[in-house]
Every structure is written in structure tokens, then in C-alpha cells.
Amino acid sequence: MTVCMGLLSCVAALTAWVVIADAKELSITTIKQEPYTMSKGSELEGYCIDLISELSTKLGFKYKLHLVKDNRYGSIDSSGNWNGMIGEVVRGEADLAVAPLTLTAVREQFVDMTTPFMQTGIGFILHKDVASEESTFSFLSPFSTEMWIGVLIAFLLTGLCIYLVGRISPTEWAEPDTDEHSFTLLHSFWYITGALTLQGAGPHPKALSGRVVSAIWWIFAVLLLACYFGNFHSMLHSNSKHISIKSFEDLANQDVIDYGTVEAGSTMLFFKNSNNPVYRRIYERMERKKSYVSSMEEGVRRTQEGNFAFIGEAVSLDLAVARYCKLTRSQEVISMRAYSIAAPLGSPLVKNLTNAILQLSESGELTYLRDKWWASSCVSADGAHVSEALLPHDLRGLFLLLGLGLGFGLLLALLELLSRARHQAKDGKKSCCSVLTSELNQRFGSRGESAEQDSSDKSKA
Predict the structure, then answer these.
(1) Whole domain around residue 437: which residue ranges?
(2) Which of 124, 230, 264, 384 could form a disulfide with 311 if both were Cys (CB 3.0 to 4.6 A apart)?
(3) Which residue stretches belong to region Disordered (predicted)?
């Protein structure tokens, strides 16, 4: 019995292969939509074009490609006739329809459809300004989290550097045994805080090294505040109203922006036939306002203009987000569906096409095609600047300037102390290293040891 079934399967596959091989030329209909099918001079290119080529190579058929005449995917009109690519397949004007055709129960009644070559669902895109959520801490939004961490590290390092310079430089602290040190660690941080808020806090450094560190910090603070307030002003004066739209329920509950989908498409039919009250409200509003669009390109264009959300299939929306920086896609994806190839009812091509699609999926070829045609090339459509939180690399030159300034200030302080140690060593006929070590011990708390060393030196003398 098993042998007989195997023989029947082989015969069926051979018959289908012979039908394909004997066919003079398959007529394939498709539709222009990025990145599935696009014009390149007099030829076509895109995901679906590459898919057809791969299937042709695997199954060994020749084909002739043409664009659907009415630029529609396929739906039943009022007279009960199919339009679009499905209509061409039903009427025998095309042997196959290869495009982002959604597999639906209604279409399956009139055409045969292969196993899906791509999975998707329904989502929506909208302008980032509209999608942004108001926050209690929106005053932090001009800088990213990484940027705030960088500013905090810069603040701590500068305070520590001021403290070290104040202790090391002999101009700041001439006599550690008798004079009181003015630049304590607490005062150092208070001093740079005053500079950061443009208020000032004395006393100011007297040494050249301390003044260098202070000047660099002042420059850093002024430029940092300029960047902060500039970005903050840009975010506050956005042209779009700030409301939080994260889901289809949020979309249905607001009346600030319009939304729509492609007219007579599978997405529109989903909302029309849904029993979910939220989805029904979305459909009723689209019907009432007639906010449908004729194509995905028009929907993306209206979304870029602002105050409009385009509802469509997530995989196609991902492409728009990859192309245009100002757009963002909803995290919520509903009504999972798939794209398939359509053929006439009873066509022997379907079985072999299904098998070939599965092979391409298992070999990773479909993933490769997806990565190839969905590669991000984010650009702003009108060339305008998009206000976003600043990242550390945006101001890396400013942080580099501060780092160099701090290092230079510390180096100057050490040179000042070294110069004093050389003079004292020359006058006291001691080694420069011993005097420098004694000075550092005095300035960083080891006064007892240095005092004992001085007394022993005097007794020896």
C-alpha cells in the first residue's frame, strides 16, 4: 500500500512537472508596490521579481510578466465580478499572480493559493511627533539616558580634578602645615555646580592650572546648556499635537488625527467584517470620513504630512519606517495573515510552487530576500531636521575638549609643584624626589610622617 501511494505521488509530481515544462510561457501578473515590484528603467525589480526568478530556476518554466491593468489586488465588485490580479487569474488572463496577495477565505473560493511566502499582520504607522507620549519628566527628553550618564561622569571627574589641582598646586595651597585648604571636595563640587547653572560660586582658583580647568568647564557648561535648550525648544514647538497613540484602541478613542487604509483591500474588509467593537468603530469612522487611500504610497505620503495614521500590513509598513525617519509603526499587530501566490482553481502548478517555496524557506533564501529589500535607508522626505534626544556621540567633541582640558590642568599643577620642589631641594641641598614626596605627603594627609622626617633630618644636621 505504501509503495502504491509513493508511486502515485511520483506520477502526480511528474505530471505537474511535465505540464510546467510543456507550457510555452506562463503569464504572470503583478502590481507595483515597494519593495515587491518597482520600475528600474524599462525593467522591473524587487522582492517578487527575485522570487519569480528563483521559482523559475527551481521548476524550469519560462514566464512573461505584466502589471495588472486596474492597479488593484483583487476584490468582488457590486456585480459579483472580481477585479485586480485575482480577476485576471479567474478570467484566465494570467496563469499566476505573484504579489503581496493576502491569503483570505473569500479568495480561496475562486482561486488556488500556494503556501505563504511571507507572514504579516495589520498595524499602523504615524508621525513620530504624534506617537510620542507626554511624560512628567519630559524636561529630560532633550538628552538620551546615555547622554545624561555622560554628563554625570563629566561632572564627577571635573569636581575631582578641581579638588586635586587645589591640593597639588602650591599657588592654591602654599603652606599645607599652616594654611587652610579652600578647595575641599565639597566646595569643588559646589564650585562647578555654580558654573554649570551660570551663577558662579567663590572663591575662584588662583593658580594657572586651576584657572585652566575652570575655563574648560565653563566652556563645556555653556555649550552643553546651549545644546540642551536648543533641543528642548525644538521639541516643545513641534507642529503636531502630542498625544499618545500606541494601540488600535488609542487610535479609535481619539479624534485629533484621521486614519485610513487602502480602499477595497483585505485590510478594509477585515475591519468591515470584524465583530470587535473597537475595530467596528475604526471602520465606521473611515466610512463616515471617507478617509480611504487609493494606494499604500498615498497612505505613506499623507502620514508624512502629519495628522494621519495609515493602517496596513505590518511587513509593508516596516519598509516605510525603514525609508522615512519621521515615521514609526505601532507595536500592536492584529489579524495575523500571509502572502501567497494565486493560480486558477485546479491548477497543477500550485503543488510544485508550494514545494519550491518551502525549499526556499528552509534554505534561508526567503530570509535573504527579505533582508535585501527591507534594508534600512532612513531619510527625511523633506530634508528637515528631526528633533530627537541627543546621544553622547553627537557631542563627542565637547567631551573630548573637557577631557583634554582636565588632563592639561592636572599636568600644569604637577609642574607647578615640581618647580617648587626643585627650588626647595636646591636651597636645602636635598634630592628633588624626596622633597616632592614630602610635599605630596603633606598635601594628601600624611603630615605626621613628613614632620618626623623633617625632625630626623635636623638632628642629623
Answers:
(1) 430-461
(2) 124
(3) 442-461
